[in-house]
TrEMBL record:
<feature type="domain" description="HD-GYP">
    <location>
        <begin position="144"/>
        <end position="339"/>
    </location>
</feature>
<dbReference type="InterPro" id="IPR021812">
    <property type="entry name" value="DUF3391"/>
</dbReference>
<dbReference type="Pfam" id="PF13487">
    <property type="entry name" value="HD_5"/>
</dbReference>
<dbReference type="InterPro" id="IPR037522">
    <property type="entry name" value="HD_GYP_dom"/>
</dbReference>
<dbReference type="GO" id="GO:0008081">
    <property type="term" value="F:phosphoric diester hydrolase activity"/>
</dbReference>
<keyword id="KW-0808">Transferase</keyword>
<dbReference type="GO" id="GO:0016740">
    <property type="term" value="F:transferase activity"/>
</dbReference>
<dbReference type="Pfam" id="PF11871">
    <property type="entry name" value="DUF3391"/>
</dbReference>
<feature type="region of interest" description="Disordered">
    <location>
        <begin position="63"/>
        <end position="98"/>
    </location>
</feature>
<protein>
    <submittedName>
        <fullName>Putative nucleotidyltransferase with HDIG domain</fullName>
    </submittedName>
</protein>
<feature type="compositionally biased region" description="Pro residues">
    <location>
        <begin position="68"/>
        <end position="77"/>
    </location>
</feature>
<dbReference type="InterPro" id="IPR003607">
    <property type="entry name" value="HD/PDEase_dom"/>
</dbReference>
<dbReference type="InterPro" id="IPR006675">
    <property type="entry name" value="HDIG_dom"/>
</dbReference>
């Protein structure tokens, strides 16, 4: 039996069925689990969540008063707990993990990074300089998560709300820049610079009035001019913080285009610095795949198809090819049609192939009905299912694609 209760009544031994709020308001990548860890109980109580659903058929009810004894095994896998206290240091655990394990850690990192970036923008609006030590700590946490499993944080950071778009966009571009830098074979100091450039590339938006920045409708010419000024404003702001030159260049020139039609200086080709060309790709990808008040984000694989048409004129084609290898032809959240006629949502990349991700099938195009969900690793030996092509989510109107791929990560592949 499902029961909605206030957060104050939550106790160990209850089975959490759902937290009443968006995932960005809590640090848990799962929303259905038996509550056995006192630390998890305390973390839930510290969130903004006011109420939640419990399943009394799988755990204690509010009326039950018998003391709960947690099992001897830890509530979270050992690999989640190991090194958890080190997330803010350069010695952070970077050993590869499954996406299932990393999602929980990535959710906590995204939540804390969102708050830190929000504060950073607020401080900048009051005329205070960016603290390089805070930036280094944030980039290191994000970089460590991407090293453990790039799909987790990058996929979570794409899921934004309208009121935190600017701040989570910075986190997402940081993660994408780190992943792209590693794909390009950069050494760790270069990876750190790339991540820093991604985190700070839009700092100039702190100089844009919030009414303009968050305007849901079409901008006037004057308002658009204010937006176009943000690279110059950000460059000046980061100069005061004595940021490295490549970071300054990426902030100033991430809206330049390969054909010279960008701004603020109309640079062409390799006149644009490497980090700025990388930031242009990462910035565009996250922007066009994110939902905004005035426009629904494109499906990730559709976004890559559109971006491929912009190479040479807008984006560096060589760097774009590396970017596709970084996130896959079918990034997490993409809707695909399988050769069997089933529709599936992509959960994560699998192996070395760009066309054999892990997917969750949930709909039959032949019957036109939902089917029992099945998790498939298309790259596993013996798997005969293949992707026939991408599908437009707008055509099908499924409201729960993001929930499908995130919930599916609790299951084991078939």
């Amino acid at each position: 039996m499902l029961k909605r209760i206030p957060i104050q009544q939550l106790r160990l031994g209850m089975h959490v069925h759902g937290l009443c709020g968006s995932w960005m308001e809590h640090p848990f990548w799962r929303t259905r689990f038996l509550l056995t860890d006192p630390q998890d109980l305390e973390r839930i109580r510290r969130t903004r969540i006011q109420t939640l659903w419990i399943d009394t058929s799988k755990g204690l009810d509010v009326e039950e008063s018998a003391p709960f004894r947690p099992p001897s095994a830890p509530a979270a896998p050992p690999e989640v707990l190991a090194g958890a206290a080190e997330d803010g240091s350069r010695g952070t655990d970077r050993q590869p993990t499954s996406i299932e394990v990393e999602l929980r850690r990535a959710a906590a990192i995204c939540a804390s990074a969102r708050d830190a970036v929000t504060e950073m923008f607020s401080e900048a609006r009051m005329g205070r300089t960016v603290d390089p030590r805070q930036v280094d700590g944030l980039v290191d946490q994000i970089s460590a998560s991407v090293a453990r499993n790039p799909g987790a944080l990058i996929s979570l950071a794409r899921l934004k709300t309208s009121d935190n778009y600017t701040y989570m966009h910075s986190v997402a571009v940081c993660g994408l820049m780190v992943a792209l830098a590693r794909q390009l074979g950069m050494k760790e100091p270069g990876v750190q610079l790339a991540g820093t450039a991604g985190l700070l590339h839009d700092m100039g938006k702190a100089a844009v009035p919030l009414a303009v920045l968050n305007k849901p409708g079409r901008l006037s010419d004057a308002e658009f001019a204010q937006i176009r000024d943000h690279p110059v404003a950000g460059h000046a702001l980061l100069q005061q913080a004595h940021m490295p030159q490549p970071v300054l260049d990426a902030c100033l020139h991430h809206h330049e285009k390969m054909d010279g039609s960008g701004y603020p200086h109309g640079l062409q080709g390799e006149q644009i610095g490497l980090l700025a060309r990388m930031a242009a790709i990462c910035d565009v990808y996250d922007a066009i795949t994110s939902n905004r008040p005035y426009k629904r984000g494109w499906d990730p694989s559709e976004a890559l198809r559109r971006m491929a048409q912009w190479t040479h004129s807008h984006l560096d084609s060589r760097l774009f090819q590396a970017f596709v290898k970084t996130i896959g032809i079918y990034p997490a959240g993409s809707l695909v049609r399988l050769e069997s006629g089933r529709l599936a949502v992509v959960m994560a990349q699998s192996g070395d192939s760009l066309v054999t991700p892990r997917v969750k099938s949930f709909f039959s195009t032949r019957s036109g009905l939902r089917i029992p969900p099945e998790v498939l690793d298309l790259g596993a030996p013996g798997c005969t299912e293949r992707i026939a092509g991408r599908e437009d989510p707008e055509r099908w109107g499924f409201p729960d694609l993001d929930t499908l791929w995130m919930d599916a990560l609790e299951a084991e592949p078939a």
